[in-house]
Amino acid sequence: YDDFLMQRADDAHCTLALVKPDVAQDEQAVATIIGRITARGYTIKDRVEITLSRAQASAFYAEHSDRPFFEGLVAFMSSGPTVALLLEGDDVVRGWRMMVGPTSPATARQQMPQSIRALLGDDGPRNAVHGSDSAESAQRELGFFFHPRIQAEVEEEPPTPAETAV
Ligand code: UDP
């Protein structure tokens, strides 16, 4: 993947889509999401299903580590399977974010009722899907899910004090 990601991810032609644990086990919902992606003309180049560890979820959302919702987000993201999709297509970083809709499903239902979060999201962290917010984020996040070496490094991280204190 090194060459593939280096060549493609910085030109906005590839992005990461996640179907989060609130929806990933709902086969009909996953089919709806995939149907929308392909109907929009994007290609699904790769797919993995993974239940993130707390360390992996924390690493993926590290930029939010000092936000009040971080603990709830990490608990949710490690609560069950996530489906990760490598999307390819013209302007797909921006296009997939448009399909996803606003962060809050309640806001999505008001402002973008056709968006995936309006249709399938709940509230708090349970907003059904994720999309990389820039080509740079896409490159990093695709590596996180589709580059085996990066996966292994995150898995080897020692547990945080919060995890060992249970
Ligand atoms: N989130 C949350 N509460 C908030 C803001 C965000 O639980 O007030 C969760 C939600 O699942 C969101 C994720 O944290 O998708 C990452 O937040 P970000 O601001 O990056 O939103 P996104 O890019 O996913 O729309």
From TrEMBL:
The active site is at H130. This is Nucleoside diphosphate kinase. The chain holds residues 226 to 391 of 1200 of the full protein. Residues 12-153 form the Nucleoside diphosphate kinase-like domain. ATP binds at K20, F69, R97, T103, R117, N127. Belongs to the NDK family.
